[in-house]
Amino acid sequence: MPRPPRCRLVEDAPSVTYFKPQGIPLRDLTEVCLGVDGFEAIRLADLEGMTMEEAAARMGVSRHTFGRVLADGRRAVAEALVAGRALRIAGGNYEVRAVRAEAEQKRFPAQGENMTKIAVTSDGPTLQDQVDPRFGRAAGFVVVDVDTMQSQYVDNGGSQAMAHGAGIAAAERIASAGASVVLTGFVGPKAFAALNAAGIKVGQDLDGLTVAEAVQRFKDGQVAMADRPNK
């Protein structure tokens, strides 16, 4: 059975949702539909000028998914313009960022963050391995369910080989793993922005600990969530 598609985050629902050619009655027009997620992809890429990596992180999806949503959105706009059709903006698989944040806060009222899964940058795949101080170029991430302490390992080797954008790619991996908090040593500005855009909170300066020790500090309320990068 196929996995349901991941909801795409949008900044807000569009205030104007319909466009039509001037002078042609609506009854005589064929309608083209542009999903709200496609509208958001066009806004981020073509109006805000974001890179594929930055825009994908903002919408909480992979670069491949963002590229497909963007292409579908551009195609709908092009069809409306070239063929003289009405354009309706509606539907799509999306969720407004503020609505999601409010839902998460109600679900976890103590700290307003996802207390179920956190990701820790790690030198290896176990709770006994050391926290890797590098966020973007960490060897991998141990994703821990803090209620059960069950964990899974997410390899980050692909980011280590990247000349640029390693932090943004790492942020995508964490978002895809379902974690809403990351514990690490140092985070650069671009990676911090990508994490923030994906709604992932950051605990920094945890190098020198094991993964298990970092998780325990978080559970004990001894990890402050950062409001800026520290690298």
Blueprint (SSEs and pairs):
Blueprint: E1 8-10, E2 18-19, E3 31-34, H1 36-47, H2 52-59, H3 63-83, E4 86-89, E5 94-96, H4 97-107, E6 117-122, E7 140-145, E8 151-155, H5 157-160, H6 166-176, E9 181-183, H7 189-197, E10 201-203, H8 211-219
Parallel strand pairs: 1-5, 3-4, 6-9, 9-10
Antiparallel strand pairs: 2-4, 6-7, 7-8
Helix pairs in contact: 1-2, 1-3, 2-3, 2-6, 2-7, 6-7
Net shape: elongated
Tell me roughly what share of residues is in helical segments.
25-40%
Q: Taking strands numbered 1, 2, ... along the chain, how are they ordered across the largest sheet?
A: 8-7-6-9-10
The averaged pLDDT comes out at 86
Can you tell me about this structure?
The protein has 231 residues and is α/β, with parallel strands linked by helices. The chain has two domains: 98 residues, Arc Repressor Mutant, subunit A (Orthogonal Bundle), CATH 1.10.10; 112 residues, Nucleotidyltransferase, domain 5 (2-Layer Sandwich). 37% of the residues lie in helices and 17% in strands. The protein is built from eight helices and ten strands. The strands form three sheets. A five-stranded mixed beta sheet has the order 8-7-6-9-10, with helices on both faces. A hairpin with a 5-residue loop joins strand 7 and strand 8. About 4% of the residues have low confidence.
